């Protein structure tokens, strides 16, 4: 079986809606960025990556492939890392910040957008600080660790007149666009059952993902969010209730603060049920849907890919793309054109997922069915 440890997950990198014209007073792109474009015949959206861990590395690679965005700045707590990135990506000294002097980014006209790639509990603080500095924001998934935090982030961005997106890379990925089409257009009729699972074996006790205060939760927060997302966009509906069960704790040293694994069931208004699982204790990466007149599925299906899938009519066969570059291009182009981002990637969308995650945890803790209002 394919090893899906976090490392191999990351190694898979090798591979690798329209928006309406803005009515609100968003800061005009032209007044934000002074940096000239290299290839795109206009100004690129200049992005500062905030937090330079593993995923920031993938985003930097995506930014190099991007047509509409470029890596213009960094925010890091490690001077040595700043030096390394400065050299590797040719980042001017004046576009390098640490977590203390970050607010000075307000005066930097070379930065248009801050991409927050910090551990989950820090998304709120840095999104709000970036918004108050007048920068558009993309924050990584999960948007934050509570609905209260998400609401504060949405408000801060609205108050500052900047746009807020969540880093939902699969919203631009061809296999996922296809399962969304198959489900929502009812190509095989009404979807009745979805099974979605994502998990990998965790073995590093120092990993922040195992610390509740900074991670917000365990695999449900980190990986289960992809199961929630995919079921929601395949059905085009919001779950109305959930039941959930924590899995056994097989390693008390690793899992003293967050769940080792969790299974949950979401009931949708059209009658569909999604049975989902997420784990730091075993490897799994699949999506399956059964509809009245056929089925569709992918495995690998929810990670970085490359994805493999089939339907009742045969194999799914789409080109492998750089997911980060594609996502950044879609967002960058709209912001450059002063258009609203589509609702399926905004803070409101991130908030919906966190609301469901809170309900799943409440269901697992109480053993009761939780209604989502
Ligand atoms: P990581 O551990 O590799 O990097 C985290 C970075 O944050 C490091 O540079 C670290 O130095 C910095 N940091 C600052 N304060 C910290 C603190 N108090 N504790 C720990 N680290 C701190 O993590 P990552 O895998 O890059 O994940 C970062 C974010 O990106 C998470 O929210 C994660 O969910 C998200 N992510 C998204 C995807 C995706 O496919 N969209 C993939 C991986 C990670």
Any key phrases for this structure?
373 residues, alpha/beta, Rossmann fold, Dihydrodipicolinate Reductase, domain 2, 2 domains, 9-stranded mixed beta sheet, 6-stranded parallel beta sheet, 11 helices, globular, disordered N terminus, binds nicotinamide-adenine-dinucleotide
Write the layout of secondary structure elements.
Elements: H1 6-11, H2 29-32, E1 45-50, H3 54-65, E2 69-75, H4 79-89, E3 96-97, E4 113-116, H5 123-132, E5 136-139, H6 147-160, E6 164-166, H7 174-184, E7 191-199, H8 212-215, H9 219-235, E8 241-246, E9 261-267, E10 273-279, E11 284-291, E12 294-298, E13 309-311, E14 314-316, H10 323-336, H11 347-366, E15 370-371
Helix pairs in contact: 3-10, 5-6, 6-11, 7-9, 9-11
Bound molecules: nicotinamide-adenine-dinucleotide (NAD).
Can you describe this structure?
The protein folds into two domains: 6-169 and 326-345, NAD(P)-binding Rossmann-like Domain (Rossmann fold, 3-Layer(aba) Sandwich); 172-317 and 353-371, 2-Layer Sandwich (Dihydrodipicolinate Reductase, domain 2), CATH 3.30.360.10. Strand 11 and strand 12 (294-298) form a beta hairpin. The model is unreliable at 1-38 (pLDDT under 50). Strands 14-13-12-11-7-10-9-8-15 form a nine-stranded mixed beta sheet. A six-stranded parallel beta sheet has the order 3-2-1-4-5-6, with helices on both faces. 33% of the residues lie in helices and 20% in strands. It has helices at 6-11, 29-32, 54-65, 79-89, 123-132, 147-160, 174-184, 212-215, 219-235, 323-336, 347-366; strands spanning 45-50, 69-75, 96-97, 113-116, 136-139, 164-166, 191-199, 241-246, 261-267, 273-279, 284-291, 294-298, 309-311, 314-316, 370-371. The protein binds nicotinamide-adenine-dinucleotide.
């Amino acid at each position: 079986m394919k090893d899906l440890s976090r490392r191999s997950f990351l190694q898979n990198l090798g591979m690798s809606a329209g928006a309406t014209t803005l009515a609100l007073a968003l800061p005009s792109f032209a007044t934000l960025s002074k940096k000239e474009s290299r290839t795109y015949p206009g100004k690129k959206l200049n992005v500062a990556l905030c937090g330079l861990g593993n995923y920031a590395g993938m985003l930097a690679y995506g930014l190099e492939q991007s047509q509409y965005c470029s890596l213009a700045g960094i925010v890091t707590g490690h001077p040595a890392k700043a030096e390394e990135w400065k050299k590797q990506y040719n980042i001017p000294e004046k576009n390098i910040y640490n977590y203390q002097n970050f607010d000075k980014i307000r005066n930097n006209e070379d930065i248009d957008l801050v991409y927050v790639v910090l551990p989950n509990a820090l998304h709120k603080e840095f999104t709000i600080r970036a918004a108050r500095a007048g920068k558009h924001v993309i924050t990584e998934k999960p948007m934050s660790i509570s609905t209260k935090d998400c609401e504060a982030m949405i408000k801060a961005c609205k108050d500052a007149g900047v746009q807020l997106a969540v880093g939902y890379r699969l919203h631009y990925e061809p296999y996922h666009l296809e399962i969304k089409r198959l489900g929502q257009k009812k190509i095989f009729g009404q979807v009745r059952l979805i099974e979605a699972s994502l998990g990998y074996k965790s073995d590093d006790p120092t990993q922040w993902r195992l610390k509740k205060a900074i991670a917000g939760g365990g695999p449900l927060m980190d990986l289960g969010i992809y199961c929630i997302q995919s079921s929601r966009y395949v059905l085009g509906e919001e779950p109305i209730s959930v039941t959930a069960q924590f899995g056994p704790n097989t390693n008390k040293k690793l899992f003293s603060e967050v769940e080792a694994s969790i299974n949950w069931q979401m009931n949708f208004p059209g009658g569909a049920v999604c049975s989902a699982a997420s784990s730091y204790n075993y490897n799994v990466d699949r999506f399956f849907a059964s509809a009245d007149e056929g089925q569709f599925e992918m495995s690998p299906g929810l990670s970085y890919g490359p994805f493999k899938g089939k339907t009742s009519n045969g194999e799914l066969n789409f080109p492998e793309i750089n997911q980060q570059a594609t996502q950044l291009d879609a967002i960058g182009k709209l912001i450059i054109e002063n258009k609203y981002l589509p609702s399926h990637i905004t803070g409101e969308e991130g908030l919906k997922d966190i609301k469901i995650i809170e309900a799943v945890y409440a269901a697992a803790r109480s053993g009761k069915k939780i209604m989502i209002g």
